[in-house]
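Predict fold of M14 family metallocarboxypeptidase; 279 aa.
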Amino acid sequence: MRRRSYADDVLARIDAFRSRLDVVQYGELQYDAEVYPLFAVRNRGQHDGLPLMLVTGGVHGYETSGIHGALQFIEAHLADYAGQADVLVAPCVSPWGYERIQRWNPDAIDPNRSFREDSPAGESAALMRLVAPLRDRVLMHIDLHETTDSDESEFRPARAARDGQPFVAGGIPDGFYLVDDSKRPQPAFQQAIIAAIAGVTHIAPADANGEIIGSPVVAPGVIQFPVQSLGLCAGATNARYRTTTEVYPDSPRATPEQCNAAQVAAVRAAIDFALKKSS
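Predicted 3D structure, encoded as tokens:
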């Protein structure tokens, strides 16, 4: 059941950018009678020779601040990087999931495990086609996510049931954290983002086992996954600097506005760090 509107919440805001930024349609999804055009936004002007930064949001459509944080960044800050960086933002990769507040697409496929060649998820395949000619040009890729209470109460049990596995209860970290690439870690990059976020919202602590969501904490607020082998969006290009943000919107210590602001601060810190290192 549709619970919110992609057209009203996302497309209308993207349309407002057309007078000052480049808006490109990179695909279209059709589920039964519903059609979802997919758009990316880019700062206007000549980009030859400029470092390319990629920002993605809404890979999991139910993770609200990923979408609205990306849109807020475009509105307030994308034009700031004209002449410094070529910034490409895909703010809502999974519009069907956004409308229905769902992690998976209608085929019960998790788009954020599907960023690979011949992807079974239309959402992931469309983004892969967009970035294919840019894979080796991208210097930085930040993918905006949330970890919510519904991960534990709804989506993890559903995944276990789908896969015929027993559900093992875990926990949801209270605060912001990042997922680095375990195969190509960039600890200074991750810590620059954490430092920027600490002024906006709280950083998730390690649990009693020194872990966050079952992964060892390698630095304050940072864990690592092998992003490309897992088919995660952060591994969609060969970017030197890449990370996945995770915000906890159900925390009693954070508001929706803080979660959006944290995503914006993370994007700005990531771009600024990559620019400094490339100069």
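The domain at 6-278 is CATH 3.40.630.10 (Aminopeptidase).
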